[in-house]
Amino acid sequence: MGDRDLRFTKTHEWVSVESDVATIGITDYAQGELGDIVFVELPAEGSSFSAGDVLTTVESVKSVSEIFSPISGEAIEINAELDANPGLLNSDAHGAGWIVRLKMFDASEIDGLMSPEEYEEHTKG
Predict the structure, then answer these.
(1) Which of 13, 33, 105, 108 could cysteine-pair with 9, CB 3.0–4.6 Å?
(2) Calpha distance 111→41 (Å, rounded)
């Protein structure tokens, strides 16, 4: 999966869509700002989220940060690897470090997210 296929939020989450399932994680930029990640509080499978809800929290050596759901959906798969190896968010933020897969309630919400180019501009801030 290339970064060109991703959509981004102003709060540094990324989304990749396949059919009606959205995979969500934090951006490489976010993991760089957070520093070494030591714990991820994973959402429960079957939980429903609205866009903007707190999806999970991530604890790094610097701080605890809330991760927000970019879209509405039901958690159908959780990345359990993060329990044993939260550092995947640092080493492979846009790949093996994904957090959750949501079955989308409204696929049109993706249209409101930033393109890779828009996100790059946003992080230059």
Answers:
(1) 13
(2) 28
Which residues, at least 6 apart from 14, have a Cβ–Cβ distance to it below 8 Å? 6, 7, 8, 24, 25, 26, 27, 93, 94
Pick from 6, 11, 5: which is nearest to 33 by CA? 11
Q: How many domains does the chain have?
A: 1
CA-derived radius of gyration, the chain: 13
| Domain residue limits at 60 | 3-118
Task: List the CATH number of the domain containing 52.
Answer: 2.40.50.100
For residue 120, report the phi and psi dihedrals to the nearest 5 degrees.
-60, -40
Q: Helix, strand or coil for residue 31?
A: helix
Q: How is residue 71 annotated by DSSP?
A: S
Residue numbers in the chain where pLDDT is lower than 50: 1
Q: Does some domain include residue 125? A: no
- Residue 58 located in a structural domain: yes
